[in-house]
Amino acid sequence: MGAELAASLPQSLLNDTQAFLNNLPRSLRGGRDPRSFLGGEFLRAGTSTAPPAKKPSVPREAIQLVDKSSLATLIRLMFLPQPLPRNILNKLLVNLCENSKTRAELLSLLLSILQDGGADLAAVDRSFAQMSLRGKPLFKAHQQIKGSKGSAAPTPAPVSMDNVPNLVARRCFEALHYIVSYNEQASTFFLNEYEAVTLKRGGKKGKGKEKTIESKYPIVLLLDLLERPIFVQNAALMEQLMTLLSIICRPLATLAKPKEEADKEMTTDEDKEKKKEEAAGANVASDASSGTNAAPTAPATESSTTTKAEEATGSDAKPEPKAAEEQNEFQPPVIPDHCLQLVVRVLTAGECSSRTFQYTLSVIQNLSLLTGARDIITTELISAARDLGTDTREDLDTLSQTLESAMSGVEVQGMALEKFSPASSKQAKLLRALKTIDYMYSRKQAPANAPVAQVNIELAPTVDPEEADSVLPRSMRDINSELLNLNKDEEKVTEIYDSLSFHELWTKVGSTLEQIHERSDMIHVATVLLPLIESFMVVCKYVGLRPSTLEMEEEVCKANTNSTEELFLQFTEKHSKILNIMVRNNPALMSGSFSLLVHNPKMLEFDNKRNYFTQQLHKRNTARDLYGSLQMNVRREWVFMDSYSHWQARTGDEIKYSKLNVKFHGEEGVDGGGVTREWFQVLARQMFNPDYAMFKTSAADKLTYQPNRASWVNPDHLLFFKFVGRVIGKAIYDGRLLDAYFTRSFYKHILGRPVDYRDVEAIDPEYYKSLVWMLENDITDIVDETFSVETDDFGNKKTVDLKPNGRNIPVTEENKHEYVKYITEQKLTLAIKDQIHSFLLGFHEIIPAHLISIFNEQELELLISGLPDIDIDEWKNNAEYQNYTQSSPQILNFWRAVRSFDQTERAKLLQFVTGTSKVPLGGFAQLQGISGIQKFQIHKDFSSTKRLPSAHTCFNQLDLPEYETYEELRQQLLTAISECSTGFAFA
User: Fold this and answer.
1) In the chain, which segments carry CATH 3.90.1750.10?
2) What is the pTM (predicted TM-score) of this model?
3) Is 795 a residue whose pLDDT tops 90?
4) Which CATH class is domain 868-979?
5) Which CATH number describes the domain made up of 623-858?
6) Which of 97, 339, 954, 980 is catalytic?
7) 954 in active site
């Protein structure tokens, strides 16, 4: 019956019926399909007979329930001094805004109140009189109530007359925020031309004359409020205003989509040349171009648009393409330059809370998409930053004078720090301005679940020891190579930072920190200067990442880059103690601008590096939800092979994010964490099982391991190395410690750091001595070597050229340094390149290369194996002395200094002298040297006391100069163990 009836009805009637049902309120739908009111069969039959054209359903215009006078009566409730029921009025206004005419009238009334009634009490009275039908002033009745006595009904506490303008403005902002949050078309009201809005200025020009703004966009009126003292001086109102503006400006983000699409098209091979010619006009055209996701049209034209859409729906005729484009076209508003400058002044005028700053950044980001707006905003920010930098430098001069005359840290309190402490201080404003510039021009961060690009696995270079510090780790070179491709915005922001000429300001900050560093009781003053230090980090954001060759003059580019880089390195190294204290007290700093410190990892202490590393390593944790636990049932005596079989078919992410659940075959233990720890320890021992031929012990100490060049005897050796890399990476990720110690050169390969001939000592001490002798002496007519090396693999001898035709090139005095470099590369890198490559493939599946590279080789050992438990008394009892005695002042001062060290510094000292932080199972009495057991030795260094202590790890020997004081000895010893990256004869 329903199908026959539907077939007899015209298609236009069926479409109107469907549109009516789709627009029914939820309360009438009752949660059911709207088609059920007339029968699903009815509509299904109708649609099957004549399927309608696929067109978006057009919402019908809501009925206008109140006229403008009735609406004004509702608005009068906002002038009541008594508190209003929470959100009751706002919900009513949101519902009334479903009608376009009511919405326009309501928003106009609220804007007029903010414009006229936000100045003082008299303005509130005038604004209320406009809302009132009878035009009675607001506070006449209120004053009568306040003055009456004996009233039966209790009256609420009166509101202070000074707060009435703020109260009315606050309620208007709350209503506007509520409306634009729940009505999308209300936001576009502010962005479109609207004739009905009268835009006035609160100030008066002449007598009785008000200034006017020549604009038809309501958003201009809201922006103009930023100049009113009542809003600028009130932090709460300013936060409300910027929150409202951030919501209203969101539709402007659609302007960026045509630009992004144009940029993508620029990369295509077919249109690349053509797009280059049209690039000049592309940006201008994109601002006015139509988009499929454009915001709705202006409220004034809603009714006519709806009518046309309904007519088109009811007929078979299709609208012309041009007309459809005009309907969806979003014309961006025209914002006066003065209003754009006012937005910037929010950052530098008065106190700006963190929330206000956040919303202001959002407003600036969206407004900057308008044609020419970003240049105006940038110019204003640069001007503000320059002025604030000058003022801050003057304040630093005053603080510096106070620090010189102060006898204690208490005397610095008060007026000296008052200029730096509050959020309205000059340094806080400077930081906000610089962060805004950075926010406008920086590339967007990848989402948390975005895949991380794998770093290309390359062998670490071999260099001379003097060049080791100047070569970046492999991972940092890879990261820099990606970031060297700065886009135009990032090149622009580097030019802006250079144009600010803040070199004198940063120099002054550095000298002030030096004064603070000299006085231990004034460290708290450095914390007060945190915004200034953070500003320095923002300006130095692209240090070390700028391209070495640009289209500008090479000399100028080099000069600018070097000056900034040198300033950054000098500043961070000179004030490393204060910076480390700040980071240690507030680890969250490393998530912001202070993360730049990882570009100079030498100045960061191990605990701060480890905290940053752990924080960043577990930051991308969204993928963890995809994986549960990884069940493993292994035999204790075959832990290595069983675990290898379990992990062979697993992906890197599965191993990384899954929780290990281990069960040993034949044992009843339930894994609550302890079984997994035991599994790691047993596996670490079996990794070095000689039967697998994967690693061999170091010839120097018999405790550390190096990949075995002959591991190829096991056909699966490369897969085993990849598995070992995964195991060590998983242990680091889960925070487990392994009893696994490697040679310095292998740690360097993990970090991508360069190796040099001094690393040969760990694998072949005698050959290392011959290399040292060759470098230190004239070898003319003495050494009979060529640029080749002979290898012996189980009796199979062959000659390997170190360079093309090397077997025919003799080693001479002139080329001996080149020979040492090549032979070092052959022994430490090329001979085990396949093993290193496979290990790093597995390791980097778990640990990103750019994160692990912030450590040095000593710190990497501590990260993998943990800090050793060092018994100082046992260490002292097993020490031997040469040209010193146990009662020598230097020896007494040495052990006194060791006791004053923390656990990390003691581990570094043990690494410095012995080459590893591992204490033998038999204690210090079982320390291994080149010829077996070799106890810890301290030898007198008869050279100058200006030299640092030096070490010979093959003999567990420390050469200690005859320092006169305890303080000098302790400082020199700390410098040696902290700054020396190799531990071999450092001086």
Assistant:
1) 623-858
2) 0.72
3) no
4) alpha beta
5) 3.90.1750.10
6) 954
7) yes
